[in-house]
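Workshop exercise sheet. Pairs work together: one partner reads the sequence aloud, the other fills in the structure field after running the prediction. Swap roles for the next sheet.
Pair: D.N. / O.F.
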Amino acid sequence: MKNILKKSFPFLIALLVLSLIVVKWQFPKSTLSKPLALVSYQTTTKPLSELISKGTEISILIDKSDYQLQIFTADTLVKIYSIVLGGNPIDDKLREGDQCTPEGTFKIVSKYPHGSWSKFIWINYPTTDSWRKHKKAKADGIIPKNATIGGEIGIHGVPKGTDVMIKTRINWTLGCISLTNTDVNEIYPFIDKNTVIKIRK
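Structure field:
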């Protein structure tokens, strides 16, 4: 048995080398030099209108930790946009003036052109859950008894010529979600009152 293995060893080595040559010849070097990955639209330059048709029902996930607004159709991630948040980008919103972006599940109240930030997509903060958290924070002494809950939270653009705030991640809002004007204009036509928006830490 040992003699058979010894005699066949050079043949096996040659077969292995030949296989590697064939594989390298069949696939481009760029493919072999990196692991295979699922297709991601995260870095696509294609506008949303080229990825989905008008009237397609979408949902939005806003990930505060990753500074991302993600567009989904059903369970399929279609595209990711960079965002910035309120002056306190970490904590959940408990009261007016805390500069926090609220967390939870929201719906659209309205959307309209905005003179300073291109577009405004108004979400229904405060929700029932927002009020629950607000009242508990008062009861626990986390916020003052006379604190108000606030409102008028939405998704919007930036003052003209200040896209750099998104690129350099400057959290400049009072609690809203801000994109570049190009990006907010891109998602605007696909958003209606059926659009569900989830905001998570």
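Discussion prompt: Residues 2-26 form the longest helix (25 residues). What would you look at next?
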